[in-house]
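BUG: 3D viewer hangs when loading the predicted structure for this chain

Environment: internal workstation, default settings.
Expected: structure renders.
Actual: progress bar stalls at 90%.

Input used:
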Amino acid sequence: MSPNGRILIIITIATILFAVGRHFQRTVDTWAGRGKAIKAVADAKGKVPGAKSAAWSAVRRMALIGAGTLLLLALLANALRYI
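Structure tokens produced before the viewer hung:
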């Protein structure tokens, strides 16, 4: 494998991991927002269903992003065999 190919693979993996990290942080923030909405249920009953659905949507999206990440990393590992 050429040095340029290695650099390209490192950049690709770093980009994938960065994107996954951003989505994970968004999921954690959304989940924390749901907890805050539940604690403030006496003040704003209308916010809880929206926060709950947003939190579960973020979790489902993170699971999808994680599966996509595993797929991309598997494809990269498979491609490395032929470089």
